[in-house]
Amino acid sequence: RKEVEQDPGPFNVPEGATVAFNCTYSNSASQSFFWYRQDCRKEPKLLMSVYSSGNEDGRFTAQLNRASQYISLLIRDSKLSDSATYLCVVKGDSSYKLIFGSGTRLLVRP
Amino acid sequence: EAQVTQNPRYLITVTGKKLTVTCSQNMNHEYMSWYRQDPGLGLRQIYYSMNVEVTDKGDVPEGYKVSRKEKRNFPLILESPSPNQTSLYFCASSSGQGYSPLHFGNGTRLTVT
User: Which of A6, A46, B11, B65 is least surrounded, with the fewest CB atoms within 10 Å of its CB?
Assistant: First the structure.
């Protein structure tokens, strides 16, 4: 089983739609969680961190469920510019190491 | 400007010809790491370093070497490149603390013929 698993998609949605991605992780001692965004052939960039209480940044909402060991990302009112691959990232218990999921691809169509 | 700089951006080489991809960061980060990204496989860690002179293997270290003689630099060395090392490579750095994010370089697209 992979340490961090994501549905690869693609998720193909119309502009204005709400879309949600889930990501599961295997190490219950994981401490920090992130969503990164990666555009085609470019470097990943931090979208948002995921805190225990959940957090929101504009149209984006991230949730953490430690009991079920998953994190989620909700995108409301999708824009064409949201088309990208979204990477779930989990930081281990006692090291600096970050573990990346394979990514979920989102396509927003006009 | 805080950044991670990788060079070169594109590199085409032949099997067996030693090459080095450089990585430098100006944020005084302790943690640096190299990843390769291949279609369908996501980002896989090659090597990482938690500080000067401290390096360790990631998930796919075979065929690669690294060094960390200074805090800011973390070069990736391919002593004898092979076609299966054709990939997109990213260097990244972080302070390593808590929720500190990874900062990535722009990537190096390597082709080994």
Answer: B65
Q: Name the residue in chain A with its Cα closest to that of B47.
A: A97
Average pLDDT estimate for A70-78: 97
Read off the pLDDT of residues A77-104 as tens digits, 9 standing for 90 and up: 999 999 999 999 998 766 667 889 999 9
Q: Strands A104-109 and A11-14, how do they pair?
A: parallel
The distance from CA A25 to its chain's CA centroid, rounded to whole angstroms, is 12
Neighbours of A20 (CB within 10 A): 12
In terms of DSSP bridges, do strands B87-94 and A98-100 run parallel, antiparallel, or are they unpaired? unpaired
How distant, in Å, are the alpha carbons of A3, A46, B5, B56, B85 from that of B22?
A: 29, 23, 8, 18, 16
Residues in chain A closer than 8 A to B99 (CB atoms): 32, 34, 49
Q: Which of B57, B36, B44, B50 is nearest to A100 (CA)?
A: B44
How far apart are alpha carbons B30 and B93 in whole angstroms?
8
